[in-house]
Amino acid sequence: MTATALAAETSPDRPGRRAWRRSEEARGLAMISPTFLYALALLLLPVLVVVTYSFWTQDYLEIDRTFTLENYRQALSEPIYRDLFLRSLWISLAVSVATVVFSYPVAWFISFHGGVHRNLWLFLVTIPCWTSYLLRVMSWKVILGYGGVLNTGLINLGVIDAPLTSLLYNSNAVVITLVHSWAAFAILPIYVSLQKIDRSLIEAARDLGDSRLRAFLRITLPLSLPGVISAFLIVMIPTVGDYVTPRLVGGKDGMMIANAIQAQFGKAANWPLGAALSVTTMVLVSLSAAAVVLALRFALGRMK
Amino acid sequence: MTDRTMIRIDAVSKFYGIYKALDAVSLTIGEGEFFSLLGPSGCGKTTLLRSIAGFETPTSGEIHIDGVPSVMLPPNRRPTNMVFQSYAIFPHLDVAENVAYGLKRLRLSREDEARRVGDALEQVRLAGLGKRQAHELSGGQRQRVALARALVMRPKVLLLDEPLSALDKKLREEMQVELRQLQKAVGITFILVTHDQYEALALSDRIAVMFGGKIAQVATPKEIYQHPRTRKVADFLGGMNFLSGRILGEQAGTVSVDAARFGAVNLGKPPGFTAADGRVTLGIRPERLRLLWDDERAPHELSGRLENRAYFGEVTHLSVGVEGLEAPLSMVETNSYGADDLPIGAEIRLAYDPDAFVLLAEDPPVSRV
Question: Per-residue pLDDT tens for A279-300?
Fold first, then answer.
């Protein structure tokens, strides 16, 4: 390369910059920048505010702005918060497992046996989401309540003599309600990943001697793992911090960490402690999500 | 190749709703035979192959594989293995794991399994590539993995669904040679589905030509090329000049036909030949017509006018108008003498051999419902 050519390439000349402005990269950046700025302003900044608050102290009506880890000490050592963290994680884990387990067959059926009516089936799956989330949770109260659909039904069938009180206002009720609320969000990603599987791969497995079940375990399931993982995360991450469902159907024993956070920002008026609880929740969710993803990958890696 | 029957297909029909994909197909395929199912797309050849593999259940009829009635058997209980058109390489497994896929069920010792996988990879000339991931393979390599994965199962019948159609021409020709050698080496029955008549001619011991869910003719490549039974078969297997002729007389085994400008020719009578109205269709392959240069003479010749010419490198296709014939004759000349330089409109003479004509039967009407 000659010296002039080198100089021409390295100098920030105008044609070069104009070319960049017309490049794919520039156009891509221009396209995402409104969304990006929006997300930055409404997502990242509030999180930063929360993180900052978590290191301060509430001093009656004032905020003491000296740096302290006292809130985190409380969040991690007070038995009430520890119990709430564990229960929230446990409930969200149970909800995610149950949602994925119940959604997978539905997604599999639509993908493999939906035929020409696949889109109709998907449409039907989304119908519950048309009503308000609140209404859906409330309707579970009607189903699970003391004089609810389930109890009266079981009494009329003669299965039980007196209404069951263990159905509503505990963590089971929270799990049942959340599984129902999130089913559609798990079915769709699993369906998409099943839809992407080349059917001749399953035929090839059958041709090479696998029964239907073995072909499913060795081909369909591993290849749909991305969908399973995203379904799991889509369900698990928001349910840890769910506030409405435990409030409405959880009773005293179904309270979750979000209810405590709400109390700190509301009645208890201790924003820094609420902030510390929020940040701790975020960290715990990230860690457990990562653990779940690794565990699923490992389990399926062993299976082939 | 022995005379033992490996596959016997008895009156197999397959309906999709009211659409008839296979119409009472009967066929026997011998042990160790390289058999091709040839036909245009939609003729039912893939449906027939998939019925043998067990992916389609015929609506009626029976398929015996090595003497076992198999129509109701699932694919995993048949002694057949398939090479899919898309190759169907498992994307989450490497090459060796792909090849070993079907062996897992046999619970071989680790050494035995590794040896069989190694042998199979060597057979398809992929030795040493066992650790490659599926997405790192070229088209030709994927094809070989699919072959190895099927052959490692030691099937009685290997089914190949248009295995070469995704490869470029050069690679396809190489793989054709390899496929033929492989079949000779392993000695098992190969059934190939293809729409490429040259592939079928080059590879097969026998070919079944299919149209509209029915088998039109089953014969060796040479027989089917030189003596196609019907007009459609003749047309599908390369170029053919069709003429209509009038029957002059019938003798035992032969017919003499007035072949318009070609004069009277004697033709072998195909089995079941009838010509109610005395009119028949004749065919002659383009390469059986020969251009006569300068004062060259032939016992049977015809003159005409060059109407069109297409250059194909080693050969030139000529289209020659002859007075008294409905359509111009096509012929193929090698380019050694300068056929590619003949001016359009030139008066030329061509020689033909009266024995090169074939008598073609009318095709049965196609109905798919």
Answer: 999 999 999 989 988 988 888 7
Q: Tell me the shortest Cα–Cα distance from A190 to chain B, in angstroms.
A: 18
CATH topology of domain A52-303: MetI-like fold (1.10.3720)
Is there a contact between A201 and B88 if contact means CB atoms under 8 Å apart? Answer: yes
Q: Cβ–Cβ of A208/B101 closer than 8 Å? A: yes
Query: What pLDDT, in 10s, does the model give residues A91-145?
Result: 999 999 999 999 999 999 999 998 899 999 999 998 888 888 888 888 998 899 8
Helices (H), B152-303: 169-186, 197-203, 221-226, 231-236
Measure CA B364 to chain center.
Answer: 20
Spell out the alpha helix ranges (H) of B152-283: 169-186, 197-203, 221-226, 231-236
| Nearest residue to A208 (alpha-carbon basis) of B295, B249, B79, B166 | B79
Q: Are strands B189-194 and B34-38 parallel, antiparallel or unpaired?
A: parallel
Hey, what amino acid is at B94? D
Query: What is the CATH number for B163?
Result: 3.40.50.300
Nearest to B12 by CA among B70, B50, B61: B61
Residues B90 and B206 in one domain: yes
pLDDT tens digits, one per residue of A154-176? 999 988 888 888 888 888 899 99
